[in-house]
Amino acid sequence: MTIAPKTPCHIIAGPLGVGKTSAILHYLREHASHQRVGVLVNDFGPVGLDSTTLAAEAPETQVLNVPGGCICCTMLSELPRSIRRLLSEQQLDRLIIEPSGMASPAQVIDVLRDAQQELNISLQPAIVMLNTVDFDEETFERVVYYHMFCEAADILVFNRCDQADASKIERAERWAGKLDPPKLRVVTASYGKLPLELFELTGGTTHTQEPRAHHHDHDHHSHDPTIHPGGFVLDIERRFDEEVLLVNLMRICYQGIDRNQVLRLKGVFHTKDGWQSIEIANREVTMRPSAHRRDTRMEWLTQPGAVDQARILEEIDRPLNRQEITGLLESR
Question: Whole-prediction pTM value?
């Protein structure tokens, strides 16, 4: 029995009006003559303007519209069925999904990842487009709407650079280069013309990536030879119990590990209750839901000695001691 090859599936997400449809049209103009491409469009309104545009300009492309809302809300349960319908009409070389600008790309990624085997698709690195003209460091970090896009991106594209001045483009690239977890690629573009090699990149939402060797937050410690950075990246399938994880992270930060003080730790974790971003420094604990979907990863600083990955993981996985929990909470 011959097993059909998995169809590469790409998400191109981003805020309303950022140029997602233009990016797909650019790809189709370059490839539709020799590739069988399917496009699933989730128009925000009920009329289906984006899908109509795609169907008119690329008539040889299979275009399916999921209108009237965003994939992550009312139509999320319909996503696998819509993909199955597209794939049943013909064998595709590539599938591109354009969620509404109101959709959470993280939730779309979750649904697609869970349905990969059933649909025989291969989820590729998530592409998120942002408008360079709108870029402002404080806004992009503070506003949840932008934050969810930036966190979920494997590949971050600053589009509409033709309308932005050079200093803003440089600021945007510099800011994106410091994002944690780091991106597979940060690129600039105009008129939605994405570098075509982005569609050939692997890694991202379903593959583990190596952590960066020197994190930017460690730079101000580099002069002190007694401070040691460490980190790990774990496969996406590894899930933590949220309560056990948080208590054990607090314990090693408050009490130290192997006579070493843990100055700071931060990470993104795949837990049984979803993805969580956790940071602990100076006995302050910050925990919030995360849109990152690539892998579980954590970084830490210890003093005066280094602590390796295996030792940290051993402590993170320790069974909870209720008396210890009480002591931790009282020590805060």
Answer: 0.78
